């Protein structure tokens, strides 16, 4: 099934509030890499290897040239080697002795807001509503029902008696 995203986190990526956004090994979508300013190779790695496979030893020089260009060698470095030298060359693997520090994302630099967190904050900031009284109008019951979590269309289609009879705590959870 893997990969679901274009990148995999190499290190812990946190928001400026200290909340972990991604742990090492988590899938990270390309949009998050772009929006959070993550660095490929430091914070994330591509999940798919879209490089050319290493040619067989007797491959043509053009195949070796394409392979080494894909590995990051410059054309000048390649031009200085013959086909046999290119075939015998081992890939350069850079290994860091210590893992990179956690990357902290500054929220003010994030152009794409977290809509779920924004909605949660709005709901948490909403004033507490008590259930309307026995002589309340339908619009008061609709406001209360939607505040408790009922779909707007369901609230509109329901009568006052139906809205009064709903067990909101069971259906939508207790509101504090």
Protein described:
By secondary structure, the chain is of the alpha+beta class. The protein has nine helices and six strands. It has a three-stranded antiparallel beta sheet with strand order 4-1-5. Strand 2 and strand 3 form a beta hairpin. The radius of gyration is 29 Å and the shape is rod-shaped. The model has no long low-confidence stretch (mean pLDDT 76).
> Largest beta sheet: what is the strand line-up?
4-1-5
Mean pLDDT: 76
Helical content band: 25-40%
Low-confidence stretches: none
Radius of gyration: 29 Å
Derived structural class: alpha+beta
Number of strand segments:
6
Q: Percent of residues in beta strands?
A: 5-15%
Characterize the largest beta sheet: strand count, sense, and whether it forms a barrel: 3 strands, antiparallel
**Total helical segments:** 9
End-to-end span in angstroms?
Answer: 41 Å
- Shape, principal axes of CA atoms: rod-shaped
For this entry, give a set of tags.
3-stranded mixed sheet, alpha+beta, 176 residues, 6 strands, 9 helices
What can be said about this structure in brief?
This protein is an alpha+beta fold. The chain has helices at residues 30-36, 61-70, 75-79, 83-88, 115-125, 138-148, 152-157, 160-165, 168-172, and strands at 7-9, 13-15, 20-22, 27-28, 44-46, 103-105.
């Amino acid at each position: 099934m893997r990969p679901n995203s274009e990148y995999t986190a190499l290190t812990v990526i946190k928001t400026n509030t200290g909340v972990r956004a991604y742990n090492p090994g988590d899938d990270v979508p390309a949009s998050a890499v772009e929006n959070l300013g993550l660095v490929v190779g430091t914070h994330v790695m591509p999940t798919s290897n879209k490089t050319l496979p290493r040619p067989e030893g007797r491959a043509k020089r053009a195949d070796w040239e394409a392979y080494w260009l894909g590995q990051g060698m410059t054309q000048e470095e390649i031009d200085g080697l013959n086909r046999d030298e290119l075939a015998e060359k081992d890939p350069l693997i850079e290994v860091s002795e210590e893992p990179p520090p956690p990357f902290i994302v500054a929220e003010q630099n994030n152009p794409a807001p977290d809509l779920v967190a924004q909605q949660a904050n709005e709901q948490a900031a909403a004033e507490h509503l008590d259930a309307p009284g026995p002589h309340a109008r339908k619009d008061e019951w609709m406001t209360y029902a939607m505040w408790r979590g009922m779909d707007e269309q369901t609230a509109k289609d329901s009568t006052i008696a139906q809205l009064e009879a709903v067990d909101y705590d069971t259906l939508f959870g207790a509101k504090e």
